What we know:
single chain, 1 helix, about 180 residues, two-stranded parallel sheet, mainly beta
Amino acid sequence: MASFFKKIKIFIPIILIVLGACTKWKDKTAQDLGLKNKYCNNPAAINYNYGFPGIADSSVCIFPSSPFVGRYKFQDSIFGLSDQMVLGDMHTFEIVSVDTVRFKIVNYCSSAQDIFFKANRYYKADVDSGIALGAWLFCRELDTLRGQLEYNSWDSSLTINWTVNSDTNVTTHKGKAYKY
């Protein structure tokens, strides 16, 4: 037992020296790099981390549905089963954002039916499933719509490629819609 106390007497000064030398860590103040640009720090945004390094600011984020929003004019080109083009009606419609990835087209048809789409970060949007997988009711209750939109950032236009199944036939609607 006496040897045990002798060993403790030797280690106590060493332990006190080690504990006395330790101090609590304090973070150094951050170095000001003079960065003023803002960048989006939200992974769901199209422009995630664009402009990094800088100051994180969610107000500069662009989400997948954002580029599509606006008013458009569209000269419809309709292709039937024979692949012969028929010039369709001139449509004016508006795209309204529902959330960060979904939007709806309002006032495309004379009916009150809105058409919902789901966009991705690559400026493409597919018809959001409404009544069946990848289909939505179109201008008449007997019509279903399948297809997609693509936003063209260089001229703020939409490339439209839709297939409409109706009670009488299947038609494809293609063309460009321009913001106005």
